[in-house]
Amino acid sequence: MSIKNKLPSLAQVYPVYAIIVILTYGWTIYWALWKLPSWLDFLPLGEIGVIFCYLVATNFFESLLALFGVIIVSLVLPRKWFREVFVSRGSVLAASILISIMIFEYHFDKPSDYFYKFPSYLPLILLIAGVLTFLAGWIRMIRKAVEVFAENAVIFLFISLPLSLLSLIVVIVRNII
């Protein structure tokens, strides 16, 4: 079996990527807006705009990395297990891992906690993600609900992709000049 037969189609990838975009960009917007009042005290608006461009560019690469991880899982697992229900299982896999990491980050805000405590939580995170991913493809009602939500979330790609491209251009120009 060729690798092309195991890869999901672009029509299946877009909704999963949209879920990832909602989570990664939403999390960054939440924290950036939380810090914005203090930034306004000591940074000019132009610098705050540049910070947002760096944040969006970073989110673009983070979301692509998360999507790449979901696609790798789809390549490793048998076609019937993952590819045939890629939208539901991929969305739930990405969402469960990203939300678990967000919860972990919310509770442990010191960077040293990440390195010492995260490895002990990783098996639990992967177990929860695996169970939820399995259920998302197995229970028809959950699968349909996730697929409908993911299909409707694609609209956010029309905002995030041009914004990400603009942010990448700003970051590249700022680092060259």
Report on this model:
With 177 residues, the chain is mainly α. It has one domain. 89% of the residues lie in helices and 0% in strands. It has 8 helices and no strands. Helix 3 packs across helix 8. The radius of gyration is 18 Å and the shape is globular.
Q: What string, H for helix and E for strand, traces the elements in order?
A: HHHHHHHH
Total number of strands:
0
Number of domains: 1
What are the low-pLDDT stretches, counting only 5+ consecutive residues below 50?
Answer: none
**What percentage of residues falls in helices of 4 or more residues?**
over 70%
Derived from helix and strand composition plus strand pairing, the structural class reads mainly alpha
Average per-residue pLDDT, rounded, comes to: 89
Shape summary:
globular
What Rg, in angstroms, do the CA atoms define? Answer: 18 Å
**What share of the residues does DSSP label as strand, in percent?**
under 5%
| Largest sheet features | none
Give the end-to-end Cα distance, rounded to a whole number of Å. 49 Å
Number of helices: 8
